[in-house]
Design brief:
The protein is of the alpha+beta class. The chain is built from eight helices and four strands. It has a four-stranded mixed beta sheet with strand order 1-2-3-4, with helices on both faces. β1 and β2 form a beta hairpin. α1 packs across α2. The longest helix is centred in the C-terminal third of the chain and has 20 residues. It is globular and about 45 Å long.
Length: 170
């Protein structure tokens, strides 16, 4: 629910209808994938949730093995989580858990060149690391997925276009 609330907020920032934002994000990150990860990893998958006045305001997923920790997904209700630094709390707790588990590395995920995200991560001591990403597939799943993502972005762009009448002030 937090993730979908975040998706709707992000969609509103891009002038995307709520239904389209929910649809797009459910397609990109289906709940069943998260459930499968949790089931397959068991204790190595931990979900952290920050609550404020009985309401969840931020959540993060931590995946660990013997030497590595991976901050898999994070989401929040910005207007509630930001003033109380709920995301900072969750990241601090997850870093602490990774250290206690003996992990040597804590991977925060890709930043996609987003300066504000890179700055946020550096506040926790993160350093950028370049890497190559490879996939070996029997079927061209990556190519098909890339095409579907491009089509989704095109549809989102068409849905978020501001009508000419609004631009002219009519």
């Amino acid at each position: 629910d937090l993730f979908l609330q975040w998706a709707v907020r992000r969609g509103q920032e891009r002038h995307l209808p709520a239904w389209a934002a929910r649809w797009s994000n459910r397609r990109r990150e289906p709940l069943q994938r998260l459930e499968n990860i949790a089931r397959a990893l068991g204790e190595a998958c931990r979900v952290y949730v920050a609550w404020l006045d009985g309401q969840p305001v931020a959540a993060s997923i931590l995946l660990m093995d013997q030497h590595n920790a991976f901050s898999y997904r994070s989401t929040s209700i910005k207007e509630l989580a930001h003033p109380v630094r709920a995301n900072d709390l969750l990241q601090s707790l997850m870093i602490q858990a990774a250290c206690q588990a003996g992990c040597h590395y804590y991977y925060r995920g890709e930043s996609g060149g987003v300066a504000s995200l890179m700055q946020y991560k550096s506040g926790f001591g993160a350093l950028p690391v370049a890497f190559k990403d490879y996939s070996i597939e029997r079927l061209p799943v990556t190519g098909i997925t890339r095409g579907v993502n491009q089509l989704t972005k095109l549809i989102e762009h068409q849905l978020t276009r501001v009508p000419a009448a609004q631009i002219k002030g009519e």
